[in-house]
Design a protein that fits this description.
- The chain is an alpha/beta fold.
- 30% of the residues lie in helices and 16% in strands.
- The protein has helices at residues 16-20, 70-77, 91-99, 108-112, 118-133, 178-194, 205-220, 286-294, 340-346, 361-369, 378-381, 388-403, 452-466, 476-479, 482-493, 518-523, 536-541, 561-571, and strands spanning 40-41, 58-62, 67-68, 85-89, 135-138, 142-144, 158-162, 166-173, 231-236, 239-245, 254-256, 307-309, 328-332, 337-339, 355-359, 405-408, 413-414, 430-434, 440-447, 501-504, 511-515, 527-528.
- β20 (501-504) and β21 form a beta hairpin.
- α6 packs across α7 (205-220).
- The longest helix has 17 residues, at 178-194.
Length: 586
């Protein structure tokens, strides 16, 4: 498969013949015949370099065009280092690299539809070149110092420079190195957030790379080294990285060019958010899809004594083009067998013209198994969720993103001011109670399909999971729970601590309505939170103890989420313990 981080043997190293395949056939043509007047066509160079080096001594340079001025050509020609090959990639070749399907990064093809920045495109293309082929990528606007050509040693697997922080002008790695995998996955996730969220403050290229590098060296390669040594090697995820400290001798490795900067890949026309349609989507045909997702159970199933089987209430008129938030109520439980107290409480949500769906763990798993190109890290990061509560958190945002409606915990009941659902008006686009802690309620929420707040809540939970340093010690309320939703709302409207009222989102077609305050939440005026006075025995009887936080850590590996993703994708580890398997725990 595409994800293989194991150390390659010598037979997997690129040969002279392999490098010849990277040459552009047009390079054989007289430059004067393919470039405009006063331009020079930059030429690839193949060198039969030392094959004992694990890192291919192949420099990858990304340029907008291979037709350059004499001054620009002179800059790039300085990268023709002894014992190194160099290959230049122009705009067309970069687009081909981005459009290539890869099992490790299935989301990249979708991402290219969002990319309007040539700088971001250049960054991703360089990382993909390192992932696919290994070698070296450089900042084309710098030139090498006298020591740079000899810095790679035969045993190096990944080599990076440190100059008070991560030095992004040069990266070298063997093919499929985990540090490149990490940087690509994090870049993809951040770019999805940035290109779908007007209020997201983008980081610069160097800030983002430096942040990823700090994360990787601290938590993946488990080093507390401050890199004071000139050269140090660190192990992690079956690979090594070598850090070279050039704080006091940078000029011997890199020199800034005084010539005009070479242009990055071209920016494309478009606006932020182009890859997500924020328009209100109330597709009445979606109801059949929802019904099939949830309503697949044995009607003759028997429940334990003292428990009641819950059937869905199905009203095809629940979705209407004249109403933004569908008249659909979503709840979740491990199974459809609940105690009498819960069964009676759930009846309080049986409003006129509403459908009511109870999603059991099988239905939750089916939703997660669907394709979600708009959430590129979803299927990997759910392997880092350790409790049923965490799955239920992320699921509620996802189900409302896809279908819209109302989500409520099964122990809630509507309060007197909720007025049997009539408090939500036809033009309300998303609807929250302000809870006692003064931020949006997560135990009750309502939204129209494809609402920005739900999208941002899912993305925020994914980001929290991806950054988790130890999955056993994750704090669920912050990782996937109210903390993720709070930031989702913040990204959607610019604030998460609001007074009652309706607030516009970054897309003028979307908004959020809030009702209540700390006092009304504590008095349960809108939502009667925790209406069921349940006991632990009831939860044990319904087999729902895994929805609590206590005891979820038993037998789980104390690793970062990234390491879990790596172990599961490359070695098949933990497949009987993590991921959607957690939902089948007794």
């Amino acid at each position: 498969m595409d994800l293989m981080f194991g150390v390659d043997d010598s037979s997997s190293l690129l040969s002279k013949e392999d490098f010849s395949l990277l040459l552009d056939p047009a390079d054989e043509i007289d430059p004067s015949g393919v470039c405009p007047k006063k331009s020079i066509r930059i030429q690839n160079a193949l060198t039969d370099h030392n094959r004992t080096s694990l890192i291919p001594k192949e420099i990858h340079a990304v340029v907008r065009t291979k037709c350059l001025t004499e001054e620009q050509t002179d800059i790039l020609n300085k990268w023709r280092l002894d014992g190194h090959s160099i290959t230049f990639y122009d705009e067309q070749e970069a687009n081909e690299i981005l459009s290539k399907s890869r099992l490790a990064f299935p989301q990249l093809v979708q991402l290219t539809q969002c990319l309007t920045s040539g700088t971001f495109k250049t960054e991703i293309v360089k990382l993909l070149l390192l992932w696919d082929n290994g070698g070296i990528v450089v900042d084309e606007n710098t030139t090498p110092g006298e020591l740079l050509g000899k810095i790679i040693e035969d045993a190096d697997e990944g080599l990076f420079f440190y100059d008070a922080s991560f030095h992004a002008e040069y990266m070298a790695a063997v093919p499929k190195h985990p540090i490149i995998y990490t940087m690509l996955q994090k870049t993809v996730a951040d770019l999805f957030m940035q290109h779908t969220n007007m209020s997201f403050i983008p980081l610069t290229d160097n800030e983002r790379k430096s942040g990823y590098f700090d994360f990787i060296t601290k938590y993946i390669f488990t080093t507390t080294n401050d890199f004071k040594e000139h050269r140090s090697t660190h192990s992690g995820m079956n690979r090594t990285i070598t850090i070279v400290n050039i704080t006091n001798e940078k000029s011997q490795y890199f020199q800034n060019s005084s010539s005009p900067r070479l242009p990055k890949l071209e920016d494309t026309e478009g606006t932020e958010g182009v890859c997500i349609d924020w328009g209100v989507i109330n597709d009445e045909s979606a109801f059949k899809s929802l019904e099939a997702l949830v309503h697949s159970f044995d009607i003759d199933a028997r429940c334990p004594d003292g428990q009641y089987f819950i059937e869905d209430i199905i009203n095809p008129q629940s979705i209407s083009s004249s109403r933004r938030i569908p008249k659909i109520i979503h709840m979740t439980s491990k199974t459809r067998c609940v105690t009498k107290a819960f069964a009676e409480n759930m009846k309080t949500w049986h409003f006129d013209d509403y459908s009511v769906f109870l999603h059991d763990d099988e239905a939750i798993a089916r939703l997660f198994r669907r394709d979600w190109p708009e959430f590129p890290l979803l299927k990997d990061t759910i392997n880092c969720i350790t409790s049923g509560a965490g799955f239920a958190d992320l699921w509620r945002y996802l189900i409302l993103w896809k279908y819209g409606g109302i989500y409520t915990d099964i122990d809630n009941a509507p309060g007197p001011l909720f007025k049997n659902g009539t408090l939500i008006k036809e033009n309300d686009d998303a609807f929250f109670e302000v809870e006692a802690a003064k931020f949006p309620s997560q135990y009750f929420l309502a939204a129209s399909p494809h609402h920005p707040a739900m999208y941002m809540a899912v993305q925020n939970a994914i980001q929290h999971l991806f950054n988790e340093q130890n999955i056993v010690k994750q704090y669920v309320p912050l990782t996937t729970g109210p903390g993720a939703l709070k930031w989702g709302v913040h990204y959607a409207i610019g604030n998460a601590y609001v007074l009652p009222g309706t607030y516009p989102s970054f897309d003028p077609r979307r908004s959020i309505t809030f009702v209540g305050n700390r006092t009304t939440a504590m008095r349960r005026n809108y939502i009667n939170r925790g209406n069921v006075q349940s006991t632990r025995e009831e939860y044990v009887g319904m087999n729902m103890t895994h929805y609590h936080y206590a005891g979820r850590q038993k037998g789980l590996p104390e690793k970062s989420c990234l390491e879990i993703m790596f172990d599961m994708n490359t070695h098949g580890k933990y497949s009987d313990l993590l991921g959607l398997k957690r939902l089948s725990l007794k």
